[in-house]
Amino acid sequence: MSVKDYIRERFFPHIWCAGCGHGTVLNSMLRAIEDLGISKNEIVITSGIGCSSRIAGYADFHTFHTLHGRALAFATGVKMSAPELNLIVPMGDGDALAIGGNHFIHAARRNIDITALVMNNRIYGMTGGQLSPLSGCGTKGTTAPYTNIDNSFDTVELSIAAGASFVARTTTYHVKQITDLIKQAILHEGFSVVEILSQCPTYFGRKNNLGSAVDMLESFKKNTTPVGSNAKEKKPALIERGIFVQEERPEYCSEYEKIIEKAMGAGH
Amino acid sequence: MGKKQPKLREHIIEREWCKGCGICVHFCPKNVLELDEKEKAVVMRREDCICCMMCELRCPDFAIEVVVEN
Predict the structure, then answer these.
(1) Which chain A residue is nearest to residue B52, measuring alpha carbons?
(2) By residue range, what is the domain housing residue A82?
(3) B58·A24 Cβ contact <8 A
(4) What pLDDT digit, counting tens, does each position of A129-178 carry?
(5) Closest-CA residue of chain B to A177
(6) Which CATH number is A224's domain given?
(7) What are the C-alpha distances in Å from B11 to residues A23, A31, A92, A210, B51?
(8) Which of A13, A19, A22 lies at the smallest CB-CB distance from B21?
(9) d(CA A80, CA B44)
């Protein structure tokens, strides 16, 4: 199959701006699914609201475009009613960690077998460039013209602390790594988070003088390093890429199945 | 020994989908692509293509496909 067999061509060209990294994430995600050879009917995508969430319209699987920040809650419902399906939840940084912050930490805490993709472009693109919890101190947006004073979350640290059993990060420059990490995340039995640093040249780039999409990709290349590299020791500001946590822990649907059996047994 | 170098059959560019971001042009290791006067990706040096596929993998718009011989 070609990657185009996994998209709904009637909605193309897509709505994302020229140079937006989200198309690259979709591209790499579809290649991961193709490589794994999973049937289209075994994939369910639930998404919330925002630029990133438009993926649900473009990918040709069972897709569900739901409420802002609530994609993981819908995914939890689908997964518990049909645990044999593979749930993938693409979210933006605002959707995942501001509006959906509570759903995010609790889905991680339960370790339910869902693959959460956090497409982090550090801004609300669709609504005009408002800052998100991942923008970081010192950045600018339409809601912070004199620079932002809010600290940002570290998606990886937050996910680990909340209990996710697979946590990884990469960027839209490192496309083969996106595909590789998403493959591993889908295969992992438990809550998986893959953070993908993605460029928004239209808002985050323009408001922060970061140049074109090409310039932003060059900065992802320059400012990141593989997990545990020597480069990080010499230059602590580098952002690490790779797998941070990959552990086998009791998965929620499997544990729930045991409870059902226990309750059924108790009646006799 | 080593892996056999893939042989290029053709580049397929969906001009309607290309938004002219220039990512494919900039990151091509062999400088095969350019943007034309309408800001659409075009193949200028076909013979230099090494079929690394990076343009196809990075394109946010699904606008370029590198087709290789089987």
Answers:
(1) A176
(2) 3-266
(3) yes
(4) 999 999 999 999 999 999 999 999 999 999 999 999 999 999 999 999 99
(5) B57
(6) 3.40.50.970
(7) 19, 19, 32, 31, 10
(8) A19
(9) 52
In order of start, what are the domains of chain B with their CATH numbers? 8-68 (3.30.70.20)
pLDDT > 90: percent of chain A: 97
| A5/A14 Cα distance (integer angstroms) | 16
Rounded to whole angstroms, how far apart are CA atoms A146 and B12? 46
Best of A1, A27, A60 to disrupt the B interface (most B CBs within 10 Å) is: A27
Q: What are phi and psi of A51, to 5 degrees?
A: -55, -50
Flag whether residue B23 sits within 8 Å of chain A, measured between CB atoms. yes
Q: Which residue of B has its CA nearest to A214?
A: B23
Contact B66, B11 (CB under 8 A): yes
| CB A23, CB A200: distance < 8 Å | no
Q: What is the mean pLDDT of residues A43-54?
A: 97
Average pLDDT, chain B: 95
**Which stretch of DSSP H or E encloses residue B17?**
none
Contact flag B62-A4 (C-beta cutoff 8 Å)? yes
C-alpha span between B63 and A11 (Å, rounded): 14
Q: How many domains does chain A have?
A: 1
In chain A, whose CA is at the least distance from the CA of B17? A13
Nearest to B57 among A2, A176, A213 (CB): A176
CB atoms within 10 A of CB A161: 12
Q: How far is B70 from chain A (nearest CA, A)?
A: 14
Which tokens is B66 given?
Answer: 């590198």
